[in-house]
Hints:
The longest helix has 20 residues, at about 10-30. About 25% of the residues are buried. The model is unreliable at about 1-10 (pLDDT under 50). This protein has helices spanning about 10-30, 40-45, 50-60, 65-75, 90-100, 110-120, 130-145, 160-165, 170-180, 195-205. It starts with 8 loop residues before the first helix and ends with a helix. With about 210 residues, it is mainly alpha-helical.
Amino acid sequence: IGGWATRGETVLVSFEEECIERYFLAPGSSGPVGSVYVADEDLLDIFSVTDAALARKRLIASLPHVSTLKARFSGDIRPAPGKPPDYVRILVFLCWMQTTKTRQRGDRDFRELLEKQLGERFTGANMSGLNPMWEHLRDFLAREHGIELVLPAIHPNFRQIGRTLQMAFPTWRDRAALRKLRQFLPPERLLEPLEVANRIYTSRRFLG
Length: 208
């Protein structure tokens, strides 16, 4: 994204559009989107840098102020029905923080990951606003682009964050599932990203 130094609204809008294009419109052109994979290398490309730490800083700098972010998470600020999304970079960030190679081994608690990335306390934080963002994005993609975003059912034990946990790919659970999938899929099928992603998505409760 050119001109990042301005840190202006145009840059943030461009990043929002990049997130929609890269993670939803492009993959959605070949079929339903059932997961979001935000590679560390993607951030290097998006922000035109070569340093992973700098790319992380740019990603976090693209987010709203922490008070607004918390209001988004809690649902105090919700997407306006019928309006284009302005929060996709938040969802992309949440998917990235669960799958980044820079995450410390053993870091698995969603709210603790948020605390470490943002330097703010999120223990026990209300996350009721996550599902409405995913649902608004699903409806927008279907209405404006004819793209199907397949959202997992709301998990009975993780009603607020379960859907966001499942949309990120590949998490540590997915990597564990992938190791087990090797005994079920022939080697040539392991080279098919959609095949592997679909198998893991539908088999998580059995394999992880």
